[in-house]
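By convention, each integer encodes one residue's backbone shape. The lines below illustrate.
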Amino acid sequence: MRGYKPTKWPKEVTLEGRPHDVQRQNSEIDFMAADITVMAQQPGLGKTHAVIKFCEENPTKRILYLTNRHRLIKEITRKLNRGIHWYGFGYLEDGIPKGCPKFLDSTVQRLYNSGLSPLMICGVTKCDKAADKTAPCLYFKQFQQFQETGLVFAPVEYINTEHLWEGDDFRFDICFLDESILKTEEISFDMEETLKALESMERFADVQYIKTLIETKNYKGLSDKRSMIVGVVLGCLTKAAYAKDYDAIDSIRKFNVDKIIEFGRYDSLYGDKSYQHGVARPIIKRYEKYYKPFSYKIFEIAQKVPVVMLDASFEKGLFLGHLTSFNFEYGLERDLEIVIYRSKVENPNSVIFRMNPKSAHPKVNFTDPRYKDSTLEGVNSDLKNIISIFGPENVGVITYKELTYDNVVTNREEFSGIEAMHYGNLLGSNSLEGRKVLVILGSYDIPRKQVADEINKHYLTFFDEDNITDAKELKELCDPSSGEYVEGPWQKDNEDGYRGLWEKDGSDPEIFSLPWLMAKAYGLNEVYQALHRSRFLINDVIIFAYCHLPDAVFNEAPIIKVYRDGTENLFGELRDKHYKPRTDMNKVVAIVKDLDEGLSPTNICRNYRIREDGARGNMRGMKEILKFCRRDP
């Protein structure tokens, strides 16, 4: 298992006060003062605004902002009125190429899909724009323009490209990273696939010496001849591209000498030390692949220039685990100065109703015929009540992707007007901000197998999924007399969801907590993001949560549990407090006609059952009547 701690651990700072106080404190943070600054505050408290302010106040600095949120890029560049947006080679926006101008050409697309690099595609298609330094195409020009503004926005994937570096020097003065740390890169060596690639290369070059190094797993020899091998591979790819041998291209591009060398390096560290559940044991299975955490790139850059991470769902335990393993596998040139900024803000005027708290409303309840009808009946009934009280224009829904796409819940005719989002597509979108009511329908959970897989990827330990208690088992194993704990799988009364079943004695305590950490990082944090899409810390919002609640929200807004037998009373109280009668357009037309015919406001109210609330004698004209007809929750 990965290990070896750096000598210096992060400093943590908590920002407190009202939302505008924290927003002001965010803007006062010196992003150049630490090697890594982590903006881990609650959503909606001004992290992006602080970045914009920094860009405005530092026009001479070369600033890089990496994100997958193109909407955010447009928002920031519009406010700053400057900045270069680096687009990927094949990026399309509304069907229009934003990277390569000729990307819609079938040959270009075929070569790109075969895995050929942009420069090689230009050479094969005889497009000379790549080599034209005076008038390059937009795709290549974007990499030169950053010198003009010093401010670049780019997809996170660019962190793995040569465009950020000049030799060993980073091209920018500071790097902002708007992304989680959950990604990992696979490092594998498939002997069969590699030999097939060499067979394809044999048609274009003599690769026997490479084949010998591969078959003998001579990683040092591969490393010594790396430059020569890279040149041979590129030459073979070029010849295959000119021949339009797409099968050969697809095979040859899978030969990555750098990954093979890196696999050998990892194998020398871990190959004879196979771990299972954190304890070194003789087991038959050996590593067939290794994984490199995405955050390793952050540590590489942070040793050159300051890095700022913006991540409201930041997982400190996972981050420190990555830092530890990076120090062991690659070695830090020096200890990194790391500061984590969190926030402590609450809004007592928002309220979260935990609906039917004995149920998580998992996806299976909406897809399995055994539960689907009964679940939908209750949910649809509640949604109808919510709409009738608040109006569809004031309601937003977040649920499973399948439910929004298959019209199971939110796109039915009676729910028209509701805006719906789905789990997995929440970051960067504030489209529900301003909605007075938010419905979270279903707990975002990851299966036990994925929990085990992610542990193996991040910690390089064989973690058997059979040794993990998942949410369903946790509920079944629980003693009913313990009451509320059956609401798992998330943390409850100091108990952890996704617990390991093996004995603690003789096992690494850190390993014992990993199932919970991974379930939280990949599942519960998505629920946390969903709850904050309406920005309930800065807006007064009513949330109906048909899902497990993260611990963090219990300190952010009042939580009221509503059991199934109490929903009728809840909606009755809300109706009395928020409901105002309304008419549809047909009734409005009829009222106008009655007014034209001289019918008195009193008679109109009586005929259309409009409540007058003591104002009958004072209503004059259509304007006053419409005050009683409109909906204004």
Observations:
- Residues 585-629 form one domain.
- The first strand starts at residue 11 and ends at 16.
- The chain has a mean pLDDT of 81.
- The chain is about 40% helix and 15% strand.
